[in-house]
Amino acid sequence: MPISAIAREAGAGTRDLFNEVVMGGIDHDTPGADWYRSGNGEVWAMIASSEGAIGYLSLNYFEGWRGQGDRLRWGRSVGRDGERRVLPPRDDPQHLHPGRGRPE
Length: 104
Prior knowledge:
alpha/beta, 2 helices, disordered C terminus
């Protein structure tokens, strides 16, 4: 089954954080993305309706889904170094590399 990567459009904080932490830098386009969508709802709808689709959403999008059982299946967050992690808030100083302002 082919995989289709869905990313957020330019200007989205979720996209900037994903590119910075996972891809290693903020670029104009998310490398490897097949489709761009403007909001969490659009990304979720495309993932849910397309076989083989993957994407990323902000955690606050799922706040209202607590207790919904199997309606929500969490994936893994894996960095370029292979480590599993939950992405920290962008401005949290304990997760910044000295002098570069990038989360670890």
